[in-house]
Amino acid sequence: MDALSILAAAALRLRWAWGRPDVWLRRPRMDVAGKHVVVTGGSQGLGRALALLCVQKGARVTVVARTAAKLKEACADIASAGEGFGDRVQHAVLDVSTASCEQVAEMLRQASRTFGRVDVFVANAGTGNGMLLFGVPLSEVQATLENQVSVNLVGGLRCVIAAAQLMASDGQGGRVSIVSSVAGLATCPGYSIYSATKFGHRGFLAGAYEEFRRHGVHLSVFYPGSIRTPGFASEQENMPLVTQKIEAQCSDISSRRVLRGRAASGHRGRGPRNYQ
Ligand SMILES: NC(=O)c1ccc[n+]([C@@H]2O[C@H](COP(=O)([O-])OP(=O)(O)OC[C@H]3O[C@@H](n4cnc5c(N)ncnc54)[C@H](OP(=O)(O)O)[C@@H]3O)[C@@H](O)[C@H]2O)c1
């Protein structure tokens, strides 16, 4: 390749990335082998799939959720997936919607006694029920609002701040990721409350990224499309019709994205990815 072609390619890349903070903020992939990864909401769905993937790649993984029975089942499942996997997965019970930052930090300190310092933290625990705001009793709207804000936004951010502080405090840094959603980038009727919580992750990252980066902690936000999980199934049952219709079109966009990554994920194209 001559110098002119290299310059042209660089100019094209710059033009594509201009004004897209996610592109500029993207970090090189991390090898999790030998690292301690903590995943909230790790007892089912996306979190459990991520926990298994990390164990397969050689990490020690702590899965966190509210229900001890589901956590034990997830650990047993992961343990049975490969030789020695059982030695590299453990669980911790914590409700992110009520735990203080200090309680999250204490849970992480406890987890590190067996699996070493926390190198990677994924704030994945989340909930989302579509709901219209007009024609629904105010008490129901308020209950949904408070539940989603306390789990997705306040709960997620408490975890992220506690994990990032802990990683920064010993000078070794680490990676912290928040699971948002495509509904954290674009929204529609029925998703206003869910989106308010998921857009919040992006705002938080924009403010906190540089501060923690100086201490070796890299924050990121993940914006997945539809994924077939237990949470997705219950969300579908209660979704307003208008949201279902719009969501079906969004899933189509999402599946094209999925198609591009199918070699890596094993996904075969249309429809949500499948993580039970
Ligand atoms: N599935 C999708 O289509 C989709 C699309 C975009 C984004 N997302 C996001 O991806 C994340 C995972 O979604 P999913 O579909 O895998 O969810 P899911 O199947 O409902 O699983 C949720 C997990 O979070 C745990 N959890 C729920 N509330 C919690 C709390 N207060 N404290 C601690 N743990 C809690 C659950 O266990 P317990 O109930 O035992 O606590 C479970 O392990 C969520 O943040 C979701 O918003 C999902």
From TrEMBL:
Pfam families: adh_short (PF00106)
InterPro entries assigned to the protein according to its UniProt record, in alphabetical order: NAD(P)-bd_dom_sf, SDR_fam
Keywords of this entry: Signal
Domain of life per record: Eukaryota
Protein name: Uncharacterized protein
Keyword Signal tagged: yes
Database matches in PANTHER family: 3-KETODIHYDROSPHINGOSINE REDUCTASE (PTHR43550)
Gene3D superfamilies: NAD(P)-binding Rossmann-like Domain
Signal sequence range: 1-19
